[in-house]
Amino acid sequence: MRDAIRFWLGDELITLRDVGPTVTALDWLRETRGRKGTKEGCNEGDCGACTILVVRLSPEDGALQWNAVNACIQFLPMLDGAQVYTVEDLRDPSGALHPVQAAMVEQHGSQCGFCTPGFVMSMVAFRKRVASMDRSPTDAEIDDALAGNLCRCTGYAPIVRAMQQALDAGPDRFDTIEADIAQRLSALMDGLGASLEGAKGRVTTPASSDELAAVMAATPHARIVAGATDVGLWVTKLGRALPHVVFIGQTPDLNRIERTEAGVTLGAAVTWSRAEDALCALQPGMRETIRRIGARPVRNSGTVCGNIANGSPIGDGPPLLIAAGAQLLLRRGDVRRRIPLESFFIDYGVQDRAPSEFVEGVFIPLPEPGTRFAGYKVSKRFDQDISAVMAGFSLRIECGVVNDVRLAFGGMAGTPKRAAAAEAALLGRPWDEAALEKAREALAQDFTPLSDMRASAWYRLEVARNLLTRFHAETTGGTRVSVYTSATEAVDA
Ligand SMILES: Cc1cc2nc3c(=O)[nH]c(=O)nc-3n(C[C@H](O)[C@H](O)[C@H](O)COP(=O)(O)OP(=O)(O)OC[C@H]3O[C@@H](n4cnc5c(N)ncnc54)[C@H](O)[C@@H]3O)c2cc1C
Ligand code: FES
Ligand code: FES
Predict the structure, then answer these.
(1) What is the 110 CA–ligand 3 centroid distance (Å)?
(2) What domains does the chain contain, in order, with CATH numbers?
(3) For the CA of 73, the nearest atom of ligand 2
(4) 29 lines ligand 2 (CB under 6 A)
(5) Is the pLDDT of residue 291 over 70?
(6) Cβ(25) – ligand 2 distance below 6 Å
(7) Which of 51, 89, 403, 425 has the fewest Cβ atoms nearer than 10 Å?
(8) Is 477 helix (H, G, I), strand (E, B) or coil?
């Protein structure tokens, strides 16, 4: 195992031997490297002022992946093996502005300028993503690329115009050095595992799931961190100290997406951004919810399994995945087990996971043909908001009656949970108004939601009932629900 963290910052190879497990990339860039173009706004992944570019080789095809990431909740050791660029790296060596910077100037996309470096970094990442697409992006995709960046003074129209202008502009300074970047990154991939212990704490980056199992067996109290989009806030907002962190974000076998005839398995390190297409190939009805999990920089770091493992009752992933019949893959030493995802959540803050056991992945089965599926996220804002109620519904009708139904909710109890009484009210009955009414009534047996700042108990129950009505309307003549036909033909009906 290496005794150092290594990454490229611009054209400099950084090697760190004594690094605190929870020092943030933002603090290090600003305080140690003087890169003060990267700003601190919220320090919790919400505003995008701290956005940097993290470039890696895709585990799928080895192509360069240019990801916008929130430096304020990215721990420094997580940059191991990456090429990192900040706003200071954008200008061409000739002194010319990057096409995105030039477009922001020409379209008057900046006033006070505090948010501008963050916007520009998200825009550069989006330009790179669009370059790998075989079509022009939609307006919604442009909005989505900018949804993680907040601006208080300019207004978004000039910034969107700058994005559109930059998409039509010529190459940037990175296009000519992509082969060099790929070569640098391949060299760094050689020997991924690292273990560092110093005055500031202990950092482990396991090179495989086997190594992770061994580390957790030896040090069960170590904290696993995948994307740090939850754990980051424990440090920046709650001031928690984590003396030993095991970073799994770059562990190769945990980064796999495996597609078989039975379904899809996502390794524990697969981010929401990478999982999106694989999940939506199975259930197109997941796309709208996934696009509303944080914003792009959060989804570029945050993992599907981290969303499950944190056990939150208001995570958006579990209701979707429970409705899809997902199974959780757990591992402790050499012992592996597979459980229905819903049974992982025992009570508020209590999950079915033993000390030293970890989540190795999640399996989502191929749906039966004819399965109707929908995900509904209800929150005060469209983008970047926590759900008041989250629902995932799946239903199949055979011979005129409901013969399979999974109704899963978040925000309705101390855990993500299936609505057992409402499901029972539907099973074996025609999917008609009478059955719907019974299921709506039964939701009151299933849930006694809480009132909090996001919603009252009454509102939550009413919304849950109304989402069921919406699902009924959409499956009996409406438009949005997805109907599964086959892996290549799944469609939004
Ligand atoms: C600005 C912002 C917006 C957000 N918006 C949303 C949203 O809209 N919807 C939503 O659901 N969430 C949201 N989140 C929360 C977060 O992004 C998700 O929960 C994310 O999926 C967590 O994944 P992670 O890899 O970052 O987890 P981490 O922070 O790395 O870990 C989370 C927890 O899981 C544990 N853990 C991680 N991996 C494993 C493993 N393999 N085995 C055992 N334990 C493990 C960690 O120890 C920790 O307890 C948001 C977060 C931020 C900062
Ligand atoms: S400082 Fe606001 S997202 Fe990082
Ligand atoms: S230009 Fe002032 S916050 Fe955006």
Answers:
(1) 6
(2) 5-88+177-252 (3.10.20.30), 91-172 (1.10.150.120), 256-483 (3.30.390.50)
(3) 4
(4) no
(5) yes
(6) no
(7) 403
(8) coil
Atom in ligand 2 nearest the alpha carbon of residue 72: 4
Reply yes or no on whether the pLDDT at 480 is more than 90: no
Which of 119, 151, 156, 160 for mutating ligand 3's site (highest number of atoms within 8 Å of CB)? 151
> How close is the Cα of 408 to the center of ligand 2, in Å?
32
Quick one: what percent of the chain has pLDDT higher than 90? 91
Nearest listed ligand to the Cα of residue 26: 2
> What DSSP character marks residue 252?
G
The pLDDT score that the predictor gives to residue 486 is 54
Give the SS3 label for residue 292. Answer: coil
- List the helix and strand counts (H, then E) for the chain: 17, 22
Pocket of ligand 3 (CB under 6 A): 110-116, 151-154
How does pLDDT run across 432-471, given as a tens digit for each residue?
999 999 999 999 999 999 999 889 999 999 999 999 999 9
Distance 46 CA to ligand 2 centre (A): 6
pLDDT band with cut points at 50, 70 and 90 for residue 477: confident
* Cα separations in angstroms, 327 against 295, 324, 361: 26, 9, 9
CA dihedral over 15, 20, 25, 28, signed as positive or negative: negative
Q: Assess whether pLDDT exceeds 80 at residue 482.
A: no
Residue 342 Cα to ligand 1 middle (Å): 18
CB 249 less than 6 A from any atom of ligand 1: no
CB-CB neighbours of 336 under 10 Å:
13
Whether ligand 1 lies within 6 angstroms of the CB of 298 is answered as: yes
Biggest alpha carbon distance in the chain?
Answer: 72
Q: Which residues contact 351 (CB under 8 A, 6 or more apart)?
A: 309, 311, 344, 345
Please give the number of the atom of ligand 2 that sits closest to the Cα of 47: 2
Instruction: Identify the pLDDT of residue 74.
Output: 98
Q: Do 129 and 67 contact (CB within 8 A), yes or no?
A: no
Under 8 Å between Cβ of 127 and 85: no
The two beta strands, 5-9 and 83-85, are: parallel
